[in-house]
Each structure stands twice: as C-alpha cells, then as structure tokens.
Design goal:
This protein has eleven helices and 18 strands. By secondary structure, it is an alpha+beta fold. It folds into two domains: 283 residues, Deoxyribonuclease I, Chain A; 74 residues, no CATH class. Strands 1, 2, 3, 4, 5, 7, 14, 15 and 18 form a nine-stranded mixed β-sheet that branches. Strands 6-8-9-10-13 form a five-stranded mixed β-sheet, with helices on one face. The longest helix is centred in the middle third of the chain and has 16 residues.
Length: 395
Amino acid sequence: MPGPEALEHGLDVYFPRLRIFNSTRSLRSSSIYEEIQEELHRIMSTVVGEEFSEHVPDSVSQSLRATAWNIERGTALEGISQVLATHPRIKGSDVLFLTELDFGMARSNNLCVPRELARRLGLNYAYSNCYISLVKGSGLEYDVVGKNKWSLHGNALFSRYPLRNVQAIALPNGKDKMQGKEKRLGFQQAVAALVDYPGAPFWAVTLHLDAHSSQRHRLRQMKLVLDHLEMLQPSLPILIGGDWNTSTYNAKRATWAILGYVRRVLMGVRNVIDNHYPYPDRWFERKLFRELRKRGYDYESLNQPGECTLHYNVDDVALNTNMGDWVPGWCFWFIRWALQKSGGSCSMKLDWFAGRDVEVVHPEPTVISNIRNKSNPLSDHDPIVLDFELLSHSD
C-alpha cells in the first residue's frame, strides 16, 4: 500500500467555487466537476497504509482482542492514544476498528490521525478516505481556528499483524452531502483486510454506516458489505466492527427525524429509553440485524447487551450545535421537555461487533464508558471491546 502522501491533492483551489452548489446532481452536471472528477476518483479509490508493528506472537493459539471506537475525528489524539495504549481492558488489542479519522483537518491540528495513532501504538494500519470536506466541519468545528491542509476524513483498520489484500467497500450516501452547512464530496467506505495472524488468518472490516440516513438505507449499506464479503477468497472467519448508527431513526431528513421523535414520545419516553435505544435490534432496526443472522453472522454474543455507546444531554453545547445545523431551534425545547423525567439525558447503542466463525472468550464483551480527559470526553462515542477466538471455518 502507498503511504498517506498518496492522498495529498490540490483541490482546495476549487473549494470556493464548489461550495456554491447545493446538490451533488447540479455539481456533477457542471464544467468544474469535469475538471476535478479524475482527481476525486483517485483520492476515493486509493487505500493507504504503513507498517509500524514489530510484534511476534508467542503462540498462535492465544485469544485475540478487538476494540471498535468512533474517535470523533481524532481531535483528542493525545488522550485517545493513551487510552488505547494503557487502559487495562483495551491495551494489547490485536485489531482496532476505528471510525472518523481526519487527515489534514484544522479541527485535529492538520495531523494524519491514522498515521499518528499507528506510530504511537506500534501498529500496522490501512486507511480509506470517505470525504473531502469543503468546510472545516459541522457544529462548533465550522468556525475552528486555522485552515484545512488536505481536508480528508475516513475510516481505518489497525493490527499488530500484517494486513493483506486491503480493499475499500464504497457505500452509497444516505443523503446528499452537498446539502446543508457541512458540504462534502465523497461517501462512506468500509475498510476490509486479511489479518495475517500466524496459522489462523481472518478477515476484519471497519464499518461506519451513515448517520443521516433511514433504517432502510443502513440495511442497504450492510447488505452491500455482506455481499462483498461473500466474494472474498480465501473463505475465512470474519469480524466486523464499527459505528453502525443504529439510532432507531430515519434521519435522512430533519422532518422525518422530528416526526420519529414525536412517535417515540407517544410510545413513552421511558419505554423507548429502556427498551428500544439500547436494543435497536428489537424493532426499529430489526431488519438489519435479521440480515446479519440470515447470513450466518453472530452479533448477540459479541456485544454487551443493552449497554449504550452514545450519550445525549440537553445541556451538551457541542452536540446541540451540531444538531442545530439541520434541525430547527424549536425542536430543542421539545427535546428538553420530553427528557425532563429522565434527567435531560438519553443514550443509544450505535457501535457493534458481528462475526462469522468467531467465538467469545472470557472476559465478556464490554462497553468502556466515561473515557475522559479531565472534564472533557475524548469522543462522543464509547469504545467497545471483544476478546475472541477463531473457529475452524466450515465451507
């Protein structure tokens, strides 16, 4: 794989003209798109990575550890790298499934976040870019000090072992990324690779499903990933990890999300907080999880049941500012009113593992909550950790 320098580009000179467009359709019919489409395709089709691991396993029969975490751009890089290296439940992870990593964004000090993490942790990595951001970000990020250098943002897979046959799986957008305040070019991409664990290689996939999408669209994205995995050779155990955005909502448009929230209030706020947000597979996202089971994937034993990974509070300025980019201001009064009996808070289960020919070993799968740097959370998501063994693959 080429290094991250292969993703460097000169498209920033076009950004002022690109920001004028309010839809991808109008952009693609323009003359400026003809000028940039070749370079855009190059960036979106190039997977990059480097090898920093010198690990030699003591035994091929040992169990493996995986951590999946949406690190929210990597803006708290120092704290994130320290947690991954020293947290007693996370340290020593053989594979990391990390989503939302910046490369050359002002909000994360213009660092190549995947390279910095891999270098500090002594891991190999593969990174696939998802978006070229025409602005500095969403919410509070929009006005961050500084200028983007490369304006890239994507997903990555890390491992103590060599990563072979690395590939990106392109996923269609749940909404037009040129609409709204945060204008972007691109689409989500899963990162798949063969982890060359001595004597027992397996496939690993970092997967980030669209947040601003419907339940049906997230199912469609999952099906595309599973279809791709069916074609991989050799046929080996598979582990998928990441942020699947199983919020229970159709958030493709603000109106639909608002109507969905009204429905949940009518269902009973406490009922939804206790029985649906922590268990999206029970009803609202059931088709996605049924699809996994139908394809032979286990998710139920690979995750901590009912433990949420994203937490919302009505007084969270950053989250509210981000939401304010696409929902009207009066909604926050309604949200505050609806959550008053729950202390102004609610939590959702968005992050998951799923595997085929993978078995849990002690300790049980865990959500690591309250990961903070002094008073500030390192990310808006909690990491999830899984200890597992690979089973002999049955054809």
